[in-house]
Design goal:
two-stranded antiparallel ribbon, 1% strand, mainly alpha, 2 strands, globular, ABC transporter involved in vitamin B12 uptake, BtuC
């Protein structure tokens, strides 16, 4: 029923709400694909948005050179997957906080490269393309592409969680040394997980570039793009199927309210949300029900016993 509503939404909703749903699909794709490495495997990839930025620029450059939409999207995904393959060798020598810091530094490096490779990326001025179709039709087309990409990311996440590959990722998350001692080729599985997780952000990055017809280094590799999917996945609950969905819905609504009323606070809210989730709700919203008995006990009135 929900899927039927989403398919029919452009026919029954106004353009503002369609754009809102489009953004929801975009963030859901990023959060669900992040969860493959960050949730199921337990490696916090703060540079996950690098694949989104690469897909954005690769599509924009290829499309502006005369390649079609399908070819540009396919090659954009290929660029991101090859990039994931390349960085897996040095980065998976690192663990825990060192891995997170290294991946976060990666998006800063890519942002600087996007600024400096002006002959290819147009630098600080930003890269523009001609969409090749009217605005209403473009929004409708990218809406359905974003919906399909989000569903594919969720389906892939679910499929991985129910396979031997997903079980191997969970064993790496719980204790990588023990997993390797039991014969699991940990590096090969980590490398494969990173490459799979690169597919969907690159794809949605290309779709987003086509829909906006413009990008710049900050829009492709900025701190907001880096933090949003991680906040969403952690708030909803990493390593679960419903976690990214709950996190995306919650944060997208809050983000929309902040943009319209207090736009200067939205970045601070992401940091505060990460802090609060880490301190009080490490399992995310999907685990909140486990804490309900505790809250009920705290709220219950204390009965005084009469001393005899």
């Amino acid at each position: 029923m929900i899927l039927a509503f989403l398919v029919l939404a452009p026919e029954i909703l106004g353009s503002y709400k369609v754009v809102f749903l489009y953004l929801t699909f975009k963030y859901l794709t990023l959060a669900a694909s992040y969860d493959i490495v960050g949730g199921q495997m337990g490696y916090m990839n703060l540079g996950h948005s690098a694949f989104f930025g690469l897909g954005t620029y690769a599509f924009g450059i290829l499309f502006s050179k005369g390649f079609g939409v399908a070819i540009s999207l396919g090659l954009s995904v290929g660029v991101a997957v090859l990039f994931a393959l390349g960085i897996s060798y040095p980065f998976f020598r690192l663990k825990e906080a060192y891995f997170a810091l290294a991946t976060f530094g990666l998006i800063t490096l890519l942002e600087l490269l996007a600024f400096n490779l002006a002959d290819l990326t147009e630098g600080a001025a930003g890269l523009s393309i001609l969409p090749g179709m009217p605005g209403d039709r473009l929004l409708l087309t990218t809406y359905y592409l974003a919906l399909a990409t989000a569903l594919a990311a969720l389906a892939t996440n679910y499929h991985i969680a129910n396979t031997r590959f997903g079980l191997a990722l969970v064993s790496i998350r719980e204790d990588e040394e023990v997993a390797e001692a039991f014969g699991i080729p940990t590096f090969r599985y980590k490398q494969r997980a990173l490459m799979i997780s690169a597919i969907f952000p690159a794809l949605i990055g290309g779709i987003n570039m086509w829909q906006l017809t413009f990008t710049d280094p900050e829009g492709a590799f900025g701190i907001e793009v880096a933090l949003v999917p991680i906040v969403m996945a952690m708030l909803g609950g990493t390593g679960t199927i419903w976690g990214p969905i709950l996190g995306v819905i919650f944060v997208t609504v809050i983000q929309e309210l902040l943009w319209t009323r207090m736009p200067y606070l939205h970045l601070a809210v992401y940091g505060v949300t990460l802090l609060l989730v880490g301190l009080f709700l490490p399992g995310g919203l999907v685990e909140a029900r486990r804490h309900l008995p505790l809250f009920k006990r705290l709220k219950a009135p204390v009965k005084m016993q009469r001393c005899v």
